[in-house]
């Protein structure tokens, strides 16, 4: 079974689904490749919107697959994986079309970085999300910290990153992290959120997106992400990080 599913609708909506419900939609290398493909498709002139979601009802995305990435021990090894995903999320952030994180369930760690790279985050009532990386004695390492400082108010971003905890959806909305809350089926929530947007010509969307991406280019977002990846790689190598991951892996 593939780790991801890509659907293209006739109205120009590309949907990327992480298909690893049994692993709470953790990101492995195959998911990274799939995301790259979906971003390429969404950059085609006829595409209007990219939607990213997770399979099942439990999780949007639980971050990096700890069972796979736990074998990366050194700064250099961590840098290779982190910079790969950071590059993909940078491309997602700079996408020509708008993107929506359809948060059907919990998002933690890198799952929140993925959501932050999207233009909009819409969430089902009852879910929780948070940048819990601090509890693993690392920072965000996929560019998510740098993205967050661009997407929500500075004190709220710093609070979320330094508290390293999950928040309920109402609080996420107050923090400015969640843009829309829905109840019931994710497809319905998504349809309600995007219906007005889809009625507008895609060239208009692309023109507005360019205004934002030009600003991020001017502010050297790419260089800031590189620093974020490097800093996280240094922390990654530390035994304190590996000890925390061991606790999760051996918790049963
Ligand atoms: C590595 C990149 C880094 C970054 O740069 O940001 C990160 O992403 S750091 C963050 C890494 N993620 C985590 O620490 C989250 C770990 N998972 C959890 O805390 C919980 O699983 C959950 C996401 C809150 C969901 O809890 P729950 O619904 O109770 O499910 P379980 O805990 O029982 O998990 C079910 C199943 O899924 C496996 N799982 C969950 N998350 C991951 C993961 N990130 N990597 C690998 N596997 C994961 C979990 O082990 C269970 O599997 P089985 O034991 O085989 O049933």
From TrEMBL:
<protein>
    <recommendedName>
        <fullName>Ethylmalonyl-CoA decarboxylase</fullName>
        <ecNumber>4.1.1.94</ecNumber>
    </recommendedName>
</protein>
<keyword id="KW-0456">Lyase</keyword>
<comment type="function">
    <text>Decarboxylates ethylmalonyl-CoA, a potentially toxic metabolite, to form butyryl-CoA, suggesting it might be involved in metabolite proofreading. Acts preferentially on (S)-ethylmalonyl-CoA but also has some activity on the (R)-isomer. Also has methylmalonyl-CoA decarboxylase activity at lower level.</text>
</comment>
<dbReference type="InterPro" id="IPR029045">
    <property type="entry name" value="ClpP/crotonase-like_dom_sf"/>
</dbReference>
<dbReference type="InterPro" id="IPR001753">
    <property type="entry name" value="Enoyl-CoA_hydra/iso"/>
</dbReference>
<keyword id="KW-0963">Cytoplasm</keyword>
<dbReference type="Pfam" id="PF00378">
    <property type="entry name" value="ECH_1"/>
</dbReference>
<dbReference type="InterPro" id="IPR018376">
    <property type="entry name" value="Enoyl-CoA_hyd/isom_CS"/>
</dbReference>
<comment type="similarity">
    <text>Belongs to the enoyl-CoA hydratase/isomerase family.</text>
</comment>
């Amino acid at each position: 079974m593939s780790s991801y599913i890509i659907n293209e609708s006739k109205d120009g909506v590309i949907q990327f689904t992480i298909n690893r419900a049994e692993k709470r939609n953790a990101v492995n290398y195959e998911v990274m490749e799939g995301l790259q493909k979906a971003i390429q498709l969404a950059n085609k002139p006829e595409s209007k919107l990219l939607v990213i979601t997770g399979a099942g009802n439990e999780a949007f995305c639980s971050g990096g697959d700890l069972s796979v990435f736990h074998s990366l021990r050194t700064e250099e090894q961590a840098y290779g994986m982190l910079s790969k995903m950071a590059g993909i999320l940078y491309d997602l952030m700079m996408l020509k079309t708008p993107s929506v994180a359809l948060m059907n369930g919990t998002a933690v760690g890198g799952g929140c970085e993925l959501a932050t790279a999207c233009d909009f985050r819409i969430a089902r009532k009852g879910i929780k999300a948070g940048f819990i990386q601090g509890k693993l004695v690392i920072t965000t390492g996929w560019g998510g910290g740098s993205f967050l400082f661009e997407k929500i108010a500075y004190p709220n971003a710093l609070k979320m990153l330094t508290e390293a905890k999950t928040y309920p959806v109402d609080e996420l909305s107050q923090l400015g992290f969640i843009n829309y809350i829905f109840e019931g089926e994710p497809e319905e929530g998504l349809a309600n959120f995007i219906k007005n947007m889809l009625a507008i010509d895609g060239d208009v969307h692309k023109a507005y997106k360019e205004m934002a991406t030009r600003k991020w280019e001017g502010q050297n977002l790419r260089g800031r992400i590189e620093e974020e990846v490097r800093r996280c790689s240094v922390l990654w190598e530390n035994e304190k990080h590996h000890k925390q991951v061991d606790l999760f892996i051996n918790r049963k």
